[in-house]
Amino acid sequence: MLTFSRLKSGRIAFLFALIAMPAVLQAQAQQPAAQSPPVAVDASVPAAIDAAVPGAAAPEAKAGATAPVAAEPPSDQNAPGAAAAAAAPAPATTDEATEASDRAIERMKARIQELEARSDVAPDIRDQAIAQLRNALGQLEAASASAAASKRFQDSVQRSAERIAEAKQQLEAAQKDAADADFENRISKLPLAEAQQALDASNASAATIKADLDQLEGRLREMSTRATAAREEQTAERQALDALEGGDETTSSDAHPILADARRAAIAAERRARAAKLNTFEQELISLPARQASATARRDLAALKLDRLTKRIPIIEARVNALQAADTALRQAEADRDARKLAAKHPVLEAYVKDTEIIRQREAEAVRLLDQSKSRFNDIQAELARVRDSKVAAQQVLEIGSIGGEFSELLRTMRNQLPETSRLQRRIADRNQAIVDGRLKRLQAEEARRALTDTENMAERILGLYAQRHGETPPAEVRESLEKLVGARRDLYVQLHDTLVTRISQLAESNAAERDLLNQTTQLRALLNSRLLWLPTSGTIGIGWLDQVRTSFGWILNVEAWQETASTLLSRAAQLPLPTALVLLVFSVLVLFTRKMTRRLATIADTVRRYSSDNYMRTPEAMAITALLSVKTPLLIGYAGWLLTLPPPPPASEFSAAVGAGLLAVAYLLLFLRLIQFISAENGLFSAHFGWSERARAVLHRNVIWLKYTITPIALILGMINVSSAQSVRDGLGRFAFLAGAFAVALFIARIADPRRGVVAERIGTGHPLWAMRMIWYPLISLVPLAIAGIALRGYYDGASQIRDGLLLSVTLIVGAYLIYSVIMRQVLVARRQLEIARALERREQARAKAAALQETEATGELQPAPVVAEPEVDIASISDQTRQLVRLTVFLLLGTTLYFFWREALPSLALLDVPLWQQVITVDGAPRSMPVTVSNVFVALAIGIITLIAARNLPGLLEITALHRLRIEAGTRYAISAVSRYLIAIVGLVFAFRSIGFDWSQVQWIVAALGVGVGFGLQEIVANFISGLIILFERPVRVGDTVTIGNLTGTVSRIHIRATSMTDGENREIIIPNKSLITEKVINWTLTDSITRVTLKIGIAYGTDTLRAQLLILDAVKATPQVLDSPAPSVFFIGFGSKGLEFEVRAFVLQLAHRSAVINDLHVSIERALREKEIAMS
């Protein structure tokens, strides 16, 4: 079929070419004597160039000695070659023009060499003149190439008649050979070796002819548009040649003579090159019909040969398969017979034969799979050829420009017949897995064969095992028989190995062809999708349209067709009893539990309204119940539609299949509308879980109900019509139903989006920016369905249907994205409430503990230990806002990306984002491959960057409110985790953003390493602080809220950043400490593990005092001092004799560093008072 279509399309061009051949040959014969005016310039150009070059010989003097080089070049008037140039005869043929060009090239080369050797010319003048002469040499070479091309075009005309006649004779002979009825009989007599040889030769010939055929067809496509392009190029060349006229006079009069002559030579050479190019265009146009006729004849011959081989190869292949199967069956029968004889001799032989039979079955299964793979490969090749032909045909049709309804319907049929991309991808994946399994089995077969190489050794081992188990040694004849069986099994493994190798190769070849098919299918589908949207399928509506509507109503109201559909539905349901029973059971259960599920929704709604009983599982449970309530009716309708769309048996009429498609469309639409209906019910998700107002919920619920009953029959009609082949039904009832559905949807949108009483008014409020623009967006969105209906009425029914389906899917995605966003925010709200409750309870417990400690202090007179300094915690309101921003942006970007990739196939304008900006080299399977980086990649990188920026700012808050507060870790640890996660998000986001625009790590790692070295030297302090900040966050030697001393600075840590740490001292000053100092210097952390610190005082008393009595007085005074801890107990030591008195040291402990100053003051006062009262003098 493929090649016959090519033959049919080529015969017309072939006949036209034969008719045009006499005129072409006559024009070619007369062409040298009737050159066009610009081409005639070629006659005198060679001599003019020679005359302009100083020292060059004229054409007439070529046989003589070379003229001496003059000191100064002659002027144009006195040039010795000027007269010869004027009188030089024009070359009569292209051969003479080629010879003249060759002579001019040689003279120009000689002139350049002479000028390079001259020392009497200034270097700058000589260099400029040589550059001009080299330019002239290039132009002369271009003229020579053009003359050669003209010669080839002339020769092609002379040979075309012979080629066409030869191709015609071969075509007639091939047609007779194709009608050879005895071919199959001759093939049926060939032995296996000759049949296999014939098959290989035929496949090789078919591949060669296919390549030649593709090349010829490509050449013919180029020739079909070459005439226009060649004439445009010829016109441009003629204009450029006309612009060169008078170019000799443009040379400045004060220029150096050598330079001026070189410039004139360059101009003359350019004239010659352009004149030769004009002649080439002329010869190309003259020879074009002849070359087209020749290529068409050869194309038709190649197509006929390929068609003949395509028909004969299956015959030869069937013969080869039959002979191979017979040979395999014969060998297997002989092996079975021999094995049965040997098995009867001894039990060990019988067991070995049984195991060998299992291997034989595996080998037979491998052969069967190999035959299946070959058959599938042929199917892929046929499908690939069909898709390629369809692609070529589609390109040719689309190049026409204005396409009517017949061609647009052809293109739509072509698109509908394309294989599904997902199916092709799935088959490739399955075949890859089969290749992996085959390789493993091949290795196992190879190992098993290698183990059986030594048959005698293997037989001895088997008999030895048998003797150990049964206590007897088989006779010698059993050993010989076993060796034969081992050899037979080894040969069987060899066959299995070879079969597996062949199948793996066949699978790999099939995968390559399938990938090519996938690529061709994707390209053709993209091409058709980009053009079919705006191609008409029918005429605009008129008086005749009403007759079409009336006639098509008779089609859909056909009682007999509906009865046949019902019968088909019942018979197919009876053929599938298990799925039918399962669907009916699920439907019955849903019907029985409808009231119970409705009551459960009301209970969940009441629970959600109370904070104390609300939890994370309430909303997911309500969503699951809503989905079960929504799926009840669509499940039954969708199953009925699926049954009607199944392939036979039993056979179904086109009407039944159309009803099945309509029921599937109804099931999808009904599921969506019922879901919205139950979500917007009184105790549904919108009002009870997502915070909708009662009025907005009621408006949506009420309008969805009437839309559901209105749009369902329309969806059934449109679904049936979309698969109907009756064009009149599509144009009549289809457009009528489309218009009715558009009115219903427009009314629904108008009521829902009403800025005064609709859902939008309740959701956005009067203060929203959209409210100020309501007079713009409200009419636009309300009229969108009617605009699409107008497109259908204008004749673009399929395009309008595609837009309608796309909008419906887009609305579904938008609703789904809104539900996901609302559910996430609902979970965040629950988490926020629980966190607030937990913190409130924690504050309550702290207040109770503080009150109890105060009461105990008042009762005992002893100060109780104060709690450890609490670490600051994140603000709940701020992290809730961060979470909302992050979730909103993420959902919006994912939705926008999904909609873009969906609509890009339908709207060609979106394909502008696929414009490549630069090429990226990647490595695939060890081989470099160039991949374009497009505008869409840049947008993806920007989107990733925006998501990374917002996620780095807001994701720590989401972690805090959803996960970290549940873990039993301190607030400082949670702070460290949040800080580190922020930097990890930034790093990962940047990596993915750069990868999306082609900067892979393998390409920039050396740059990063070099920058790292530079940064290490130039910014080593900043890097050191950065690393130190990470160490602080992980090891936590210092925490927020700790009191630390660094050098002579003491304060409380308030914030820890990645570069520096903030500390507040006793004077309420903010001190910035680089993180490096906290790691490398000596740091005293007063509250790292224990906030209790020791206070040390030195007391001196006069000599002669009773030291024991003084020590006890001081100790009692210390113990009586408030805020001095009993445990560890205070102590007083007599430490020595000072120059002025006896020295004592007081050691007391306080709860925290903030108490030290007050305790020291109180100790001084208490000790002084106690000693003074006992009349003990202090030194």
From TrEMBL:
Membrane-crossing segments per the record: 576-593, 622-643, 655-676, 705-724, 736-754, 775-797, 803-824, 886-903, 938-955, 975-994, 1006-1034
One GO MF term: mechanosensitive monoatomic ion channel activity
Protein name, as recorded: Potassium efflux system KefA protein
Domain (Mechanosensitive ion channel inner membrane) ranges: 580-918
Composition bias, Low complexity: 64-95
Species of the source: Hyphomicrobium sulfonivorans
The Mechanosensitive ion channel transmembrane helices 2/3 domain, residue ranges: 981-1020
Start and end residues of each Mechanosensitive ion channel MscS domain: 1022-1087
